[in-house]
Amino acid sequence: MIALIGAAIAPGIAIMSYFYLRDSFEPEPISMVIRSFIFGMLLVIPIMVLQYIMQNEWYWRDTIVAEVFQSAVVEEFFKWMVIFFTAYKHVEFDEPYDGIVYAVAVSLGFATLENLFYLIINGTNVAFWRALLPVSSHALFAVWMGYYLGKAKFTQSTQSQRFFLWISLMLPICLHAIYNAIFLAIQNWLLAIIPFMIFLWWQGMKKVQRAHEHGSKNLFSRPQ
């Protein structure tokens, strides 16, 4: 049991540590990051209940659109809501990269508990693939979400703020939907998921770098 729990939580902790340690200007209070991680975990049960209810309605059964909606839209929307109301408006959200840190924390909290439930049911033989695909993909969707939340937070235009907030929700939903559709609609899904994951990591790291660049500009423009 200890090995199973370790296999379930290790990927989320490792990926979270990586993104947290990349915050080189003003690292976020660890208590805030842990709180965000726990909020993500708390989302799992209500989302699972909602998905179960939706799956039992006749008009949601056995369609790719239904499967994608239940996962991509529901999960990313609730994660976005938690980030927006618990971190986005918090005083500690004081540089663009913070959006990535908090979004990744919430998403990995969700992915870690979800991963634990999955491994309890299916065993640790799938732990490697779970770490490589579902857990890391949740973190990468969050990078896009957090990046645009950071842009929204520090833009001076109300119109631009609304635009970036909208993008911060819709882009992760679209990426999550594509991810799910690959497994549901493509027989040789491995041939499609590998380049897609490479794309997510490549673009995710570019967004991490850009968020740091925006953060350095904000830092050096503050009054000393």
From TrEMBL:
Provide the Gene Ontology terms for cellular component. plasma membrane
Q: Per its record, what are the GO molecular function terms? A: peptidase activity
Where does the record say this protein resides? Cell membrane
Task: Provide one Gene Ontology biological process annotation.
Answer: proteolysis
Membrane topology per record: Multi-pass membrane protein
Any transmembrane segments, and where?
6-21, 33-53, 100-121, 127-150, 162-179, 185-202
Question: Is Flavoprotein among the key words of this record?
Answer: no
**UniProt keyword Membrane present:** yes
Keyword list, A-Z: Cell membrane, Hydrolase, Membrane, Protease, Transmembrane, Transmembrane helix
Where would you say this protein principally sits, based on its record?
membrane
> What EC number(s) would the UniProt record show?
3.4.-.-
Which protein family is it in? Answer: Belongs to the protease PrsW family.
UniProt function note: Involved in the degradation of specific anti-sigma factors.
Q: What is this protein called?
A: Protease PrsW
